[in-house]
Design brief:
Layout: E1 10-18, E2 24-35, E3 49-53, E4 82-86, H1 97-100, H2 111-126, E5 131-137, H3 139-150, E6 155-161, H4 169-183, H5 195-209, H6 215-219, H7 223-236, H8 242-253, E7 267-273, H9 281-285, E8 295-300, H10 302-308, H11 315-322
Parallel strand pairs: 3-4, 3-5, 5-6, 6-7, 7-8
Antiparallel strand pairs: 1-2, 2-4
Helix pairs in contact: 2-3, 4-8, 5-7
């Protein structure tokens, strides 16, 4: 029986992985962690697997952000799900420009490549081709939307938060600005990673932090508070590799599954903050009503959440949505 690895992570190596553009890498590392225990049907198939897709600046251990909702001590522990959290393609310590040392020669990848990366891993490591559900937050929601659109028969439900089905408008301008910032440095094509690239990452992380909360929430912080919050965020991201970030940003820049949303068969639950400045209910959630057949929406007050970081606000909506999938 597969055991939970608690707070640690494990590594699996794919013999090879083929990208959408036809490029192939050998000995491809996949970092992952699990929570809970699997349940099996009579044929030995895992029937209670939920795949967690992490945020833009996360990894497989980001699943701990949701510890009030997941795991043996969570408020939803009686649902007995088996969570598999995978560090996505392009992120350390899975296969990425930095960990392969390919830097700017790394294969250009798409969000669909990220999905196929996880699908191949699941097939090899767990013999899973169909999962119970997919939970994606932020950029992880891009993967969840894409998975549901491209492989609609492979899951029973989707839960997606703080995300969207395409990069457009303000998000597109932001991604272009980040690319321009990186490409403006001659150091980007140097053989040796240099201080100028690290300084650019400081600027990038400051800009990213400006999108973390709503404008209304930011107004309630003093400048002293903001200095501390920004410095902490930038420091935490100081070790980010600029090549990893650039390829990650390129994949997001070209992301758009709007025309495929009608392919989704899974029951879908979307949650979003009422005043979110980056992913808004108006442009990223309510338009889904006409595009996804079996859809539920939950809009919450983000100001209260920002100060408490209390995920218990989602317990009742999650419980109601997941009740039919309880194992």
């Amino acid at each position: 029986m597969i055991e939970s690895d608690k707070l640690g992570y494990r590594k699996h190596v794919l013999d090879e992985f083929e990208f959408e553009n036809g490029q192939i890498l050998q000995d491809v590392e996949v970092e992952y962690t699990t929570r809970g225990l699997p349940k099996y049907d009579e044929e030995g198939n895992i029937v209670n697997a939920i795949i967690y897709c992490h945020r833009y600046n996360g990894n497989c251990l980001s699943i701990e952000d949701l510890n009030q909702l997941l795991g043996s001590k969570s408020e939803l522990s009686d649902f007995n799900f088996f969570y598999i959290s995978i560090t996505s393609l392009g992120f350390p310590e899975s296969c990425s420009p930095s960990t392969t040392n390919l830097k700017f020669d790394f294969p250009k990848y798409t969000i669909k490549d990220c999905v196929n990366f996880k699908r191949k891993f699941l097939a090899e490591e767990f013999d899973i081709s169909n999962v119970l559900g997919i939970l994606g937050v932020g950029r992880g929601g891009y993967e969840a939307f894409t998975w549901g659109c491209e492989y609609p028969d492979e899951m029973e439900f989707l839960i997606i938060g703080h995300s969207s089905f395409k990069t457009n408008g303000y998000r597109y301008i932001t991604s272009k600005a980040l690319n321009n910032l990186i490409e403006s440095s001659d150091a980007y094509l140097d053989a040796v990673y240099s201080d100028p690239l690290t300084k650019i990452m400081f600027s990038i992380n400051t800009l990213i932090y400006s999108q973390y909360f709503s404008k209304k929430s930011f107004q309630n912080f003093s400048q002293e508070d903001l200095d501390v919050l920004i410095d902490t965020f930038v420091e935490e991201g100081s070790s980010d590799d600029i090549y990893d970030f650039k390829f990650r940003n390129d994949a997001a820049l070209n992301y758009d599954v709007e025309d495929k949303l009608s392919n989704i068969k899974a029951k879908t639950f979307i949650f979003c903050a009422s005043e979110d400045g980056y992913y808004s209910p108006e442009f990223d959630v309510y338009p889904l009503k006409d595009k996804i057949e079996n859809l539920e929406i939950y809009i919450f007050d983000d100001q209260e959440f920002v100060y408490k970081y209390d995920y218990s606000v989602f317990v009742n909506p999650f419980r109601e949505f997941l009740e039919e999938f309880k194992k």
